[in-house]
Amino acid sequence: MRALARWGLAALLVAAGVGHLTTLRRGFRITVPEWATRVLRTDKDTIVVVSGVVEVMLGLAVVLLPRERMRVGLAIAAFFVAVFPGNVHQWQQGTSAPGLDTDARRLARLFLQPVLVAWAVWASSGARLHR
Q: Which backbone phi and psi does 100 adopt, to 5 degrees?
């Protein structure tokens, strides 16, 4: 069951990452809060591209690096926590993005985030850490 969950998580991350880099790029730029560009000293497009690359890498790593699976799972969980402020910003501002075009969907997305964190931790647990 965990293997299936890992593969599903990997597919979700890779698909989202590819979306960040291609057809959904504009929609993801909308969700980046202005404060993030100031804190990171870069533009929204760079944040979207970098986060997309990170998503693809994490998605591949969780299935291709079995010895590092637990660490990768924790990194995925941390990534989901790190992007949460952008989700809150999108909900507060009422800005639409692909699949998140109503207040109800944007609010539901906020409640999905803890599920994603738990999914990442559960799907990657059970593997021994190797040094």
A: -125, 65
Model pTM above 0.90: no
Residue 59's nearest CA partner among 121, 13, 16 is: 13
Identity of the residue numbered 77: A
What is the dihedral sign for C-alpha 50, 52, 54, 56? negative
Instruction: Give the contacts of 83 (CB within 8 A, at least 6 positions apart).
Output: 51
Please report, in tens digits, the pLDDT of each residue of the chain (131 residues total): 999 999 999 999 999 999 999 988 988 888 899 999 999 999 999 999 999 999 999 999 999 999 999 999 999 999 999 999 988 998 998 888 777 889 999 999 999 999 999 999 999 987 454 44
Cα–Cα distance for residue pair 71/119, rounded to 1 Å = 14
Q: How many CB atoms lie within 10 A of CB 23?
A: 10
Dist CA 119 CA 96 (whole Å): 26
Q: Are 89 and 33 in contact (CB under 8 A)?
A: yes
Helix, strand, or coil here: 96?
coil
